[in-house]
Amino acid sequence: MIKIGILYKNIKVSGHPFVKSRIDKVYRIFSSIANDIGADVFFGQPKDLTHQGFRRSCHYEGKWSIKRNIDLDFIINKTLNYEWVGKIDPSIKVLNDRRLTRIADDKLLCARIFKKYSPKTFSIERKSDLEEALKKIKTEKVVLKPRFGSEGIGIYIRNRGSVNAPMKNHIIQEFIDTSSGIKGLVSGTHDLRLTILNGEIVDQYTREPKRGLISNTSRGGIEKYFKREEISKSVIHVAMCVDRRFCKILPRFYSIDFLVDKCGKPWVCELNSRPGLYPGDMKNIGVYKKLYKKLLTSIINHVKHQRARAFQSAPS
């Protein structure tokens, strides 16, 4: 069996690893699907990560148990930034590769690399940075967010006149008005997430804010799933242009968040190198089961391919 580790910060290495019953159920399903197609999954904290695997981890096979000293073939990173990813033994493939993770983690770098498709974005470390940024941003509202962050934490939408002080490790962006929605999908303020696996769009949904303008599910945003053929050609075009940047990285599994403006133009809001493996609403678990199988099959095939290459190159 191929051994896959999932690095997870909010886990208790015990017979009850996940506090939330929804997350516990999802990872039991994920583990069972993996087992059916030839893989064992182990869940561990960063502090239990060794050069070759996990010192201690949780494993599900009918029930949760604690396993010790597990050597891993592959790691799904759900918590570490790109600097930590680079410290893992090179013989163990990590999802995602450090190069992709670095771009996704750094919102300023991401906006610069994909400048053609991104809202105007500037660092505001110094007062002069802020003054220069406000000269170039024409929208009345602006978006302030941590340069390195996730789950919508620390994001604020303000009137430009109320922003008067620089902020360390923060960026400012022009505001993209999504209040006109996306025809046939969503009627008002939103973002649109596409999940990409090795260049294929494997999941797609909109997120609408419960209140205000920020739609992250961690802040109450409501997910709405739709069919692949309902994605506009313009969104697909931008997604594939972004993915070409990472085409040499296999496997790769990440998401792109889009904002669609009043004219129907898609803007890249940000990338996420650690997309969630559980739905906001468990009624959508069927969609995720298909995603799990595709992701796990890709990982298993990659490990087998690497083993075959190592065998062929070994001295006879």
Characterization of this structure:
The chain is of the alpha+beta class and 316 residues long. The protein folds into 3 domains: 2-95, Rossmann fold (3-Layer(aba) Sandwich), CATH 3.40.50; 120-174, Dna Ligase, domain 1 (2-Layer Sandwich); 179-282, D-amino Acid Aminotransferase, Chain A, domain 1, CATH 3.30.470. It has helices at 21-36, 82-85, 98-105, 107-113, 127-136, 233-244, 285-313; strands at 2-7, 39-44, 53-60, 64-71, 74-77, 93-95, 121-123, 141-146, 156-159, 170-174, 191-197, 200-208, 222-225, 253-260, 266-272. It has a 6-stranded mixed β-sheet with strand order 4-3-2-1-5-6, covered by helices on one side. Helix 1 (21-36) links the parallel strand 1 (2-7) and strand 2 (39-44). Helix 1 (21-36) crosses helix 7 (285-313). It is globular and about 60 Å long.
Short description:
It contains seven helices and 15 strands. With 316 residues, the chain is an alpha+beta fold.
Based on the model shown, name its key terms.
five-stranded antiparallel β-sheet; 316 residues; alpha+beta; Dna Ligase, domain 1; 7 helices; Rossmann fold; D-amino Acid Aminotransferase, Chain A, domain 1
Shape: globular
Q: Tell me which oligomeric state these chains represent.
A: single chain
CATH C-level class of the largest domain is Alpha Beta
The name of the CATH architecture of the largest domain is: 2-Layer Sandwich
Distance between the termini: 25 Å
Number of helical stretches of at least 4 residues: 7
Q: How many structural units, i.e. domains?
A: 3
**Helix proportion range:** 25-40%
